[in-house]
Write a structure and sequence with these properties.
The protein is α/β, with parallel strands linked by helices. Helices cover 41% and strands 14% of the residues. A nine-stranded mixed sheet has the order 1-4-5-3-2-6-7-8-9, sandwiched between helices. Helix 11 links the parallel strand 10 and strand 11. Helix 3 packs across helix 18 and helix 5 crosses helix 7.
């Protein structure tokens, strides 16, 4: 993936939304022109002219992803956002990126798939006067953010106006669950509908969005209280699995290693590695079955010390490149990630696409199994079940591995359900449905 920095052609003056404010509404002719030039009307006109198959223009607010594919710190949310942008470009839609939480002062071209995406600066320092005017104009909204974030927020607001004016999007798609975007986005002045993918955690100021998409029913249910805080609609679209997981052949039981694999961040206890290590410590029989731990983070030294003190048969592998990760998941007998919380749990879907059963976060093991029409493993409830129960489930999978027929069936069902094409089509339908209502 190649990134080419080009000279910015963005004129920081004339804030987008300024047109409707500068044209006196008592002048009916001028007001009509302003409405005809608004992004919403332009989008509706394109929808009528092109029909339901015409190309769309989507402004994505997600990480710039300079290091996708090489950096180990790219999380699941970032990868999923990139996959959607890549798919849209491949289908002939225009995509631009505004990396909301990153500091970018120059416009760039992001080489993506077989095309490219325009990347707009979040901190447009060009033109001090427009920036100063942005500070004054947005003071009523920005003061709630506090003085320390005031100047940056003003620049972000100006960057958003520049991106909307230059790119003229039909849709703004935000992948940051919690951000200053809904505070800064003047939804009542700018008529471009905004969509939020509520990846995880708790959102804020949801009323700025016409549609909120959750990656799972469980995530939607957990955020039910937030649903009352906005007037838009909500739906569920399951995340996809990377294309690499569709290319590898099923590994038969006779060729699999009698071992378990854990994959997850070690920056905190959310993924439940502490529970898994306690399970290994509680059951001497597990000493015959190695546990390979993929991931890194601040708590790794603590986990390593615990395992060493008890002589556990575990190996900490740190970060693993994609090809090796695929080999690990395909060749083991069970993936075990006893998370305390997951908004989706793509690792369980990836494991199913390898034909490997999982032990993990109970709500998502059940939901994903329901999505593909068959069980994908054993649910584990960290609030109700003990490490000893987890140890028993592990021994069952390690000693009595599923038949090849069952594994191939799970793999086939999962690969049909978690395709990137289906994910992209689901979002495209949501875009068009929203635009048809706006029209």
């Amino acid at each position: 993936m190649r990134i080419q920095v080009v000279t910015s052609g963005v004129d920081a003056g004339n804030a987008v939304g300024g047109l409707s404010r500068l044209v006196p509404y008592r002048d009916r002719a001028a007001a009509t022109v302003a409405r005809l030039l608004s992004p919403r009307v332009q989008a509706a006109k394109r929808l009528r002219e092109d029909g339901e198959s015409g190309p769309l223009r989507i402004l994505m607010l997600h990480p710039f992803l300079e290091g996708v594919g090489i950096t180990p710190f790219i999380g699941g949310k970032s990868v999923v956002a990139y996959q959607l942008s890549e798919w849209l470009v491949e289908q002939g839609h225009a995509v631009a990126i505004l990396p909301w939480k990153e500091s970018l002062s120059q416009e760039c071209t992001f080489r993506i798939a077989r095309g490219q995406a325009r990347v707009f600066p979040t901190l447009p320092f060009r033109g001090l006067l427009p920036t100063f005017l942005a500070l004054i104009r947005d003071f009523p909204r920005l003061r709630k953010l506090g003085w320390r974030r005031f100047a940056r927020s003003a620049l972000l607001s100006q960057g958003l106006r520049n991106a909307i004016r230059e790119f003229k999007p039909d849709i703004i798609h935000v992948h940051y669950t919690r951000s200053t975007f809904p505070i800064l986005y003047p939804a009542k002045r700018l008529s471009v509908p905004a969509i939020l993918t509520h990846h995880h955690g708790v959102g804020n100021d949801l009323d700025a969005f016409r549609l909120v998409v959750f990656p799972s029913r469980k995530q939607q249910e957990e955020r039910a209280g937030e649903r009352d805080a906005f007037s838009g609609s909500a739906e569920v679209i399951h995340n996809p699995v990377g294309e690499a997981f569709f290319a590898k052949d099923y590994v038969p039981a006779s060729e699999r290693k009698a071992e378990a694999v854990f994959i997850g961040t070690l920056k905190d206890d959310r993924k439940g590695l502490d529970i898994l290590l306690e399970a290994y410590a509680s059951e001497p029989a597990l000493a015959a079955y190695p546990l390979k731990i993929v991931g890194d983070g601040a708590l790794r030294p603590r986990y390593e010390a615990f395992a060493a003190a008890r002589g556990l048969n575990v190996r900490f592998l740190g970060h693993v490149v994609s090809d090796d990760l695929l080999d690990l998941m395909s060749a083991c007998r069970v993936l075990v990630v006893p998370s305390r919380m997951e908004s989706f749990g793509v690792v369980y879907a990836e494991s199913a696409c390898c034909g490997t059963p999982s032990i993990g976060y109970a709500p998502m093991i059940r939901e994903l199994g329901g999505a593909i029409g068959r069980a994908i493993g054993t649910p584990f409830d960290t609030e109700k079940e003990t490490p000893e129960i987890l140890a028993h489930s592990l021994l069952t999978h390690l000693r009595e591995f599923q038949t090849d027929e069952s594994g191939k069936e799970m793999q086939a069902h999962a690969r049909r359900r978690f395709r990137r094409d289906d994910y992209g089509e689901a979002y495209l339908r949501s875009y068009r449905k929203l635009l048809s209502h706006e029209a």
